[in-house]
Structure formats: C-alpha cells, structure tokens
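Our preliminary data section would be incomplete without showing what the modeling component actually yields. Below, a chain of 121 amino acids is followed by its predicted structure, encoded as tokens that our downstream tools consume directly.
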Amino acid sequence: MKILIDMNLAPEWVEVLKRHGWDAAHWSSLGDPRAPDRVIMEWARSNGYVVFTHDLDFGALLAITQADGPSVIQVRTQNILPSHLENTVVDVLRQHGSALESGALITVDEARSRVRILPIT
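Predicted structure:
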C-alpha cells in the first residue's frame, strides 16, 4: 500500500510508515504545498495512494462527490505527532488494509476507528 501524507501532518510520518513496511511520501515532496485538496485527491487516485490527513475536508469531498477513491485515513486528535499516534495508526493500517485497498474512509481517534466503505451515499 502506498500512503500520501498530507501537508497538515509532519514529514516524519514518512519514515515511521516506511519502517513498518509501507511506501510513503509527503505531499511537500511531490506537489505544490498550496495545492487545493481536490488536486491532492486526484493525484492520489491517479497514482494509487491512500491519503493520510488531519483535514476533515477530504472526507467531505468523498461524501459530496460520492467517489470510490482514493481511500482516506483522517486522524481526529489534537496531538498528531508520530511519537503519540504511531501505534494507533499502524494498528489501523494493519487491521483495515484490505478496506483501504478497496476504497474506504477511516476516521481515527485515540479510542477507536470508524470505517466507511466508498462510495459514501
């Protein structure tokens, strides 16, 4: 699985995810840091990436467009640093990898995760 880390998450997530076996890239190394969310979504979809973000707009875009991809993992915590969330995010990726490969929106907080299969209708 390839994971695209959004601008609102630290670039340190790249090494964390790679250490656990995933291909990861931070948007700042791939595209315009000021690109609108829809551009990032289209790039991720075209290139087979799952979007990892702290931005709720990505889930809203999936719902409004009823798109079947790309998959999105959105974290809903205040502390979004890898030192705090690494184990939680890794567990979610391992547990829901097949859903992400097929198309899903996963919302993660410190207590639980919620999976919605795409498209959201």
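The beta strands are 2-5, 23-26, 49-53, 72-75, 104-108, 113-117. The longest strand covers residues 49-53. Preliminary results of this kind motivate Aim 1 of the renewal.
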